[in-house]
Design brief:
Two copies of one chain form a homodimer. Chain A is mostly helical. Chain A has two domains: about 230 residues, Citrate Synthase, domain 1; about 100 residues, Cytochrome p450-Terp, domain 2 (Orthogonal Bundle). In chain A, about 55% of the residues lie in helices and about 5% in strands. In chain A, α8 packs across α17. Chain A starts with 12 loop residues before the first strand and ends in a 17-residue tail after the last strand. The model of chain A has no long low-confidence stretch (mean pLDDT about 95). Chains A and B meet through β1, β4, α1, α3 and α4 of A and β1, β4, α1, α3 and α4 of B.
Chain lengths: ~375, ~375
């Protein structure tokens, strides 16, 4: 009896989780019971980190303690900074992040301790250090000295300080904080699933996070925001947005990057929130020439039967590209920003997997030859 | 309607493959149609690499070309050797391999080229360089200078040259070659599956291989040979093997490491072949005090109803530990040896996944709270 091939594992339920749930049919996302719209309106990224790790919102003393520990862990060991300075400046920023996180594991005395206590310590260290790595690499590859983290700023503000070397506006900090809140977890997405597969072998947290970074790096997963940004730039060069839409999308059948989602058949709730923040920042600056392009293109799609019938709405990547661009994130640094947020979800899923672990080992369906007789080397012919 | 939870994905068929098939009920393993027993008896590891990559055995000129290309790619860039010399000597060798492979990707101009041609080039480069990394790290952490690869030796002989700094005996080279042949692929095992999940996001080969290394590192996957070796040492300290078996296994219910397998319900064909090679090497040296322990323990299990009823036979890890120990591999270097072989299968699966790709994105079953109302920070109570 042939077993059914579940290519892509679409619809296959692989684990219980208490972390997040996507209601794709009504366009709703919750983290541990809280609507993402409430979290985006009220919560700091640090509160969301606490919620995902400990299953409840922190009290003020608990939040203070978390922030103090994040500050204490944010600096990079000199050997990591030294390594970053030696990498080729043209290297893919996600490959740099993958390598740096892997190397941090070599120096961590907790690396091979898979107890829950050690896993919480490693989750905290990674959540604190990933922003520092990203900001340092952005500066190093541009020939600038890295800027050390400060212990009087929240995670979003501190990142922008380390990136730019000056304090960001409150609107920029708010926009980045909301971005980090919105991207922190999303069910059993491919990078989170990758981290759980590695953990299922009783692999350590560094191995699981390094694997997740490599998975998020893929253009079909975390790379979609960069693709959307590049598309907006292309559209901006066209005679008009409408002309580009007619010629490229309707005429040539090109996909609009950042529209449609395997899980959402209703509008992605994260897109609307990011759009509001894009409008809030861009109203006070001239940085966002592409917001108008994105809005006009979205309106064309929303009025087109092809997009309406297929429920192809703007997803989180679409407006996150605009927000990140507006706060000074270079396009190829957008996927690392995704990792800066998603480390919260990855580490929470890793800890959850450890608490109820079973090796994830599916099967392949062999379709190759069978019963071939061995042929000695000198009797083989090239055919 | 609740969907069925497929924890561990046991029995779920995730992809078509032409690479290998495990016949668990009759204890048979084939690569691209060839019985592993024929390959172990006749083939070099390089022929198996060619078979997995190109779907057929190479002719002599094709094999010569592959070997020449492996020789040309075996040396490490000075920046990688420099990095290895800076790592803490106590770091886990698999974490070192994970970091070094990730860093190699930073310098490879092909890193972001996911064409089939580039993927074959990267597969070749990694297959050539992983032995060099492992041998270099074994020497560096012992305070010795790395030994450069030679271009007049096959992959197995060359590795032993780089590791020991002198040529190995023919029996040792044969044993390592057979080990590499036997471990090169094994259906949809956890690390191979990890590499396909990363590839499914259109992630690059370095990201996929780095993830696979982290997955193989886990004690439930590649770490099992080390666990078997440590157990043999413990048994050797006991008054007798029989006494240890009665007291630890029958008395305390401890598992025998390296016995039993999720897929095999008949003897693992690889175990018998490795046992023969262990006997061949150990007959001419005094290195293998533990072979006798392993054989006696296996005989006790084979005569015990508990093991017979549950089809718990020695698997590949059991005798590979003895073989690797006999050729001078330190116990914590045994999982890297597994990676040296499995890179052939990983890279072949990655190329196969690219040829018919679909994002691997399963679902989670949310069991957490729903509809929680937001509570402002100053109203939260610790409970």
């Amino acid at each position: 009896m042939a077993e059914e091939l579940k290519k892509g594992l679409e619809g296959v339920v692989v684990a219980d989780t208490r972390l997040s749930k996507v209601f794709g049919d009504i366009g709703k996302l919750i983290y541990v019971g809280y609507d993402i719209r409430d979290l985006a309106a009220h919560a700091s990224f640090e509160e969301v980190v606490y919620l995902l790790w400990y299953g409840k919102l922190p009290t003020q003393p608990q939040l203070n303690q978390l922030q103090a520990r994040l500050h204490a862990e944010a600096a990079l060991h000199p050997s990591i900074l030294q390594a970053l300075k030696g990498y080729p400046t043209g290297a893919h920023p996600m490959a740099v992040l993958r390598t740096a996180v892997s190397q941090i594991g070599l120096n961590d005395p907790d690396a091979e301790d898979n107890s829950q206590d050690a896993n919480y310590r490693k989750a905290l260290s990674l959540t604190a250090k990933i922003p520092t790595i990203i900001a340092a690499w952005a500066r190093i590859r541009a020939g600038k000295e890295p800027v050390a983290p400060r212990d009087d700023l929240g995670l979003a503000a501190n990142f922008l300080w380390m990136l730019h070397g000056h304090e960001a506006s409150q609107a920029e900090v708010n926009a980045l904080n909301v971005y980090l809140v919105l991207l922190a977890d999303h069910g059993m997405n491919a990078s989170t699933f990758t981290s759980r597969v590695v953990t299922s072998t009783e692999g350590d947290m560094y191995s699981a996070v390094v694997a997740a970074i490599g998975s998020l790096k893929g253009p079909k997963h975390g790379g979609a925001n960069e693709a959307a940004m590049r598309m907006f730039r292309e559209v901006a060069e066209a005679p008009s947005v409408k002309e580009w839409f007619e010629s490229e999308v309707k005429g040539k059948g090109r996909r609009i990057m950042g529209m449609g989602h395997r899980v959402y058949k209703a509008p992605d709730p994260r897109a609307a929130i990011l759009k509001q923040h894009a409008q809030a920042i861009c109203g006070t600056s001239e940085k966002c020439v592409l917001l108008g392009v994105a809005e006009e293109l979205e309106a064309l799609a929303l009025a087109d039967p092809y997009f309406v019938e297929r429920s192809l709405y703007a997803n989180v990547d679409y407006y996150s590209a605009i927000v990140l661009d507006a706060i000074g994130i270079e396009t190829d640094m957008m996927t690392p920003m995704f990792a800066m947020s998603r480390i919260a979800g990855w580490s929470a899923h890793i800890i959850e997997q450890w608490n109820d672990n079973r090796l994830i080992r599916p099967r392949g369906n062999y379709v190759g030859p069978v019963d071939l007789a061995w042929v000695p080397l000198d009797e083989r012919r090239d055919d």
